[in-house]
Specification:
The chain has 13 helices and 2 strands, in the order αββαααααααααααα. It has a two-stranded antiparallel sheet. The N and C termini lie far apart (about 65 Å). The chain is an all-alpha fold and about 325 residues long. β1 and β2 form a beta hairpin.
């Protein structure tokens, strides 16, 4: 396949199948391979039976060699084997030098990113049950004034998925992903808030406890935390390194103030409860704004022009919405 053969760093194998189709296997960098994906999509978009499948490669035996002479006695690397002058860091891990003619930041490709984010943006029974359990643990930690228990709640809270889904949907102009992520986000927030209100109705809540009182007012530190969490989540996902620890940081911004709002409102402390709700809303705005910006900076975009037009519209709408809300929050802080 000429698209792949144009890069000598890409070991590949061709196999003709019984039904006349051709199976092409190639080792591509884990990051920076999106230009190849774009070229393949453009070339075979209207071809029946065409499909690209990405499989993770942990290692190869024999090892890929930096120097072709190490794998071939005559000094000429063998195409598709351990020779070919292939740098294993470029083939397996990728780097700043991208594969293909188009220059993009070194990250996983659009389809891998989409698949990973879509999985965490579903309002599944597992997602809702984990949100419910994390809300129970968070309320317990707040009532006990125990920061370790609160951290435990944030570890199990899966709130990063819908937040990143909304941001990626904006960057790609993808309505399907946006609807799924928005539904999951609203469902998760509703479950956590209702359980927290119920806990506030039956428990003796102390609004002066340090862990509760510290989450009833909006401050500059809260905005910076949420902005950093959103950007870190998007960067981690785009680099394909996972977002487990970053997910805890996102949950720090979202779950505790939401649980505080529910506890206080359920107990009749409306002023503090509404203050915690304002903090929660501010964190949601900052997380989504920063994550969307991080995806855009990393060059996450659709491949076709009609999707590009829809993407531009989504970005302008998101910029007006999130940016306007952020300005309103800054005004509240400055006037307060």
């Amino acid at each position: 396949m000429e698209i792949l053969r144009g890069d000598e760093r890409v070991p590949q194998w061709d196999m003709e199948l019984a039904d006349g189709r051709v199976l092409v296997q190639a080792l591509l960098p884990a990051t920076g391979n999106e230009p190849v994906l774009n070229e393949l999509e453009e070339a075979f978009r209207d071809t029946d039976g065409y499909r690209v499948v990405f499989l993770s490669v942990e290692a190869t035996v024999p090892r890929l060699q930096d120097d072709p002479s190490e794998s071939a006695p005559d000094g000429e690397g063998r195409k598709g084997e351990e020779g070919n002058g292939t740098d294993p860091k470029n083939v397996i891990r990728g780097g700043e030098k991208e594969v293909g003619s188009e220059k993009v930041p070194a990250r996983i490709n659009r389809e891998e990113l989409y698949t990973g984010v879509l999985e965490g943006s579903q309002a599944s029974p597992y997602y809702l049950s984990m949100v419910a359990l994390s809300a129970v643990v968070a309320c317990s930690g707040l009532m006990l004034d125990d920061v370790a228990v609160i951290i435990g709640a944030m570890v199990i809270a899966p709130l990063i998925g819908p937040s990143m889904g909304i941001s990626l949907a904006t960057a790609l102009g993808d309505l399907k992903l946006g609807r799924a992520a928005m539904l999951a986000s609203l469902a998760g927030v509703s479950v956590a808030f209702v359980l927290s209100v119920a806990a506030g109705l039956v428990l003796d809540v102390d609004p002066t406890g340090s862990e509760i009182a510290s989450r009833t007012e909006l401050g500059w530190g809260n905005l910076s935390l949420a902005l950093a969490a959103g950007a870190a989540g998007a960067i981690s996902l785009a680099q394909g390194v996972g977002a487990g620890l970053v997910g805890v940081m996102v949950s720090v911004a979202l779950l505790p103030p939401l649980a505080v709002a529910g506890l206080l409102i359920g107990s009749g402390y409306l002023e503090g409860g509404f203050g915690a709700l304002l903090l929660t809303g501010a964190n949601v705005v900052c997380v989504n704004l920063a994550a969307t910006a991080a995806f855009l900076v990393q060059g996450v975009r659709p491949n076709t022009w009609w999707e590009g037009d829809r993407r531009k519209q989504a970005i302008w709408i998101a910029a007006a919405l999130w940016g306007g809300l952020l300005l309103a929050l800054v005004a509240i802080l400055m006037l307060g």
